[in-house]
Amino acid sequence: MRHRRWKQLREGSSLATANGGLCVGTSEFGPVSGASSINGPLRFTRIKLSNWRNFQSANVEVQERNFLVGPNASGKSNFLDSLRFLADLVFEAGGGLDYAVRQRNGIPQIRSLAARRNPNVELEVTLGRAGHEHWRYRLVVGQDQSHHRPVVKAEAVHHDGKLVEERPDDNDRADPERLRQTHLEQVAANRSFRPVADFFRSIRYYHIVPQLVRETERWESQEVDPYGGDFLERIWQTPVRTRDSRLSRIQKALAVAVPQLDKLQVRRDQSTGIVHLEGRYKHWRPFGKWQNESEFSDGTLRLIGLLWSLLDGTGPLLLEEPELSLHSEVVRQLPQVMARLQISNRRQLIVSTHSYDLLLDKGIAADEVLLFQPTPDGTQIELSASRPEIKQLLSHGLSPAEAVIPFTKPQNIQQLTMAFD
Amino acid sequence: MAHLVVEGQTDEVVLRRILTHLLVDAGRAFGLRGRPHLLINLPRYNAAAQFEAFVALVDFDAEPNCVGAFVNGHLPNPSLLMRFRVAVRAIEAWLMADREGLAEFLSVSSSRIPLYPDAIQSPKTEMVNIARHSRRKLIRTGMVPREGSGTAIGPAYASILIEFANTHWDIHTATTNSPSLSRSMVAISSLAI
Q: CA A360 to CA A378: how far, in whole Å?
């Protein structure tokens, strides 16, 4: 019953989200050289998907910060999900190929609708630091004929251009049952490419649903809930000094966006064991009034969730429509907030968005915007920098909102208003 | 009290500092959707300025005519409570007019900051080029565009300028170095009661 309720909330939220010149030339001396040093954490540099959900074939270069834009149902979330799949392969509490496929209801659900004959799904990612490729991981997954269980059809790892792992190998041929697991998920087998497994494990995905944060008692599973069911518990379990430092930074940001909220703390209720997020609201009483998450607005909870997620971890952070429930002027600040954080921690951000306000920031580069375009043969992903007309518009001072959003608008959208006549 | 009509967030912060300096209460910020949007809607703000004071601020940019012709062309009949002001050639020039303050904030030598900011053709490009010489990584990586990015400014350009405008910019010094800022200060000060 609780599970169904959770599913409804998840789906309800995704439905709700679905509806959801100044002339400057380029710098005379050209761009900065050495601005992206080769230091910094490992990050995705290229992502290739074959026969994966919306994508028959997609191959795209990614930067330190990326915004995924496109019409509804073009596959932005499925693109993020392909990276979550990698994280599920190495998830510490029971992850693996079987788990990752089961989470997605089987290979037939993962296969692209546009696929004709190919029964397998394929993922290939390149990891590196600022243009330098270090690792390449490729995985092809299919089903065995008799039991319809997921099996590895191919698994290959390259390190600095050299092949360090290739399957199926002789052992697999002698014992095909071995192909039910990737080598990536096995500590005994991934020794030569352990950094790849560690990197995938560091991926974080957040799509906080305020209503789920408020129903803390509902979340009983040991699994991490990217929708916020265990959000407060996770804050509580963070080491005290780290937690206090993050909450104090969040409080500083909230002081601007939600000025009436002047203090933030977490507290575990001794009688119920439930963790509560509490905020003190200023008003005419001299000491203000403490309220907990059940009384916070959706926007306040989402902003707290977003800021926490930016501070939590160092691996790639996947964010789904961070603009939801936030005031447009708060949304406009988000790219700058992200940019400033990245200058210090170099953390990779991959963010799906429909927000015009978010894309108004002229500091967003053409190669940071990935354009999702549905076609009869599946969705194509293009770097907006690869379209000369977009590049021209941006270099003449238009923002990505003005230059790219027109490519994401469904044609004949005006007819939507007549659909219910 | 005066409402603000601005192109973007940096201009809003600069104009709020100016109004506060001149003891004019700053009201709400309108526009914030770029220069063309502001210029198109200028007559509407002008109409509203029959009832409340408005200060509209735009960059002069690469306009070929003189400032006077530009102002008359866009707003031939300003309302009594309307102040339409132009930053020559962009708001960055007003910020550069506080040479010592900007040099310290950006961690560059003050000799890198132009002596006559109103004479610079593209203050935004100039600002980016000054930032290239910064000794601070935050400034360089934040303000200068990355190679191949296709943008004119770095990812944190706006917020770094806003930080400077809010916390370091010395308006008094800047006024002595930028004639367009100085003229605007005089015009806006007449709204103070």
A: 29
Q: Pick A367's closest partner by Cβ from B7, B148, B152.
A: B148
d(Cα A350, Cα B165) in Å, to the nearest integer? 31
Is pLDDT above 60 for A330? Answer: yes
Smallest CA–CA distance, residue A65 to chain B, in Å, is: 10
pLDDT tens for A33-72 read 433 444 678 999 999 999 999 999 999 999 999 999 999 9
Residues in Cβ contact with A361 at an 8 Å cutoff, skipping those fewer than 6 apart: A332, A335, A336, A399, A400, B158
Examine the pLDDT at B4 and tell me if it is beyond 90: yes
Question: In A, which residues are within 8 Å of B149 by CB distance?
Answer: 31, 365-368
B157 contact A CB<8A: yes
Helix (H) or strand (E) holding A5: helix A2-18
pTM: 0.87
Q: Are A85 and A200 in contact (CB under 8 A)?
A: no
Does the CB of A364 have a partner CB in chain B at under 8 Å? yes
CA of A366: how far to CAs of A67, A382, B9, B33, B140, in Å? 10, 11, 21, 20, 19
> Which pair of structure tokens corresponds to residue A221?
């599973």
Sheet strands (E) in A176-311: 204-206, 261-268, 275-281, 289-292
pLDDT at A219: 57
Picking from A337, A340, A365, the nearest residue to B149 by CB comes out as A365
Query: Which residues of chain A have a CB within 8 Å of the CB of B128?
Result: 27
The tens digit of pLDDT for each residue in A220-238 reads: 665 677 777 788 888 999 9
What is the enclosing helix (H) or strand (E) of A193? none
State which amino acid sits at residue A336: Q
For A87, list phi and psi in degrees, rounded to 5.
Answer: -65, -35
Contacts with A333 from chain B: Cβ below 8 Å: 159
For residue B18, report the phi and psi dihedrals to the nearest 5 degrees. Answer: -65, -45
Could you tell me if B124 lies within 8 Å of chain A, comparing CB atoms? yes
**CA–CA separation, B160 vs A78, rounded Å?**
35
C-alpha A54/C-alpha A102 separation (Å) is 19
Residues with Cβ within 8 Å of A332's Cβ and at least 6 positions away in sequence, in order, are A357, A358, A360, A361, B9
Contact A25 B90 (CB under 8 A): no
Is the pLDDT assigned to residue A16 strictly greater than 50?
Answer: no
| Banded model confidence at residue A15, pLDDT cuts 50, 70, 90 | very low
Residue B67: pLDDT band by 50, 70, 90 thresholds? very high
Residue B155 near chain A (CB below 8 Å): yes
Rounded Cα–Cα distance for residues A313 and A276 (Å): 22
Q: Which domains does chain A have, with CATH numbers?
A: 1-11+41-203+316-322+333-421 (3.40.50), 205-314 (no CATH)
Judging contacts by C-beta atoms under 8 Å, the chain A residues touching residue B148 are 31, 367, 385
**Touching check for A36 and chain B: CB below 8 Å?**
yes
Contact A355, A405 (CB under 8 A): no
Q: Is A161 helix (H, G, I), strand (E, B) or coil?
A: coil
Q: Do A367 and B149 touch (CB under 8 A)?
A: yes
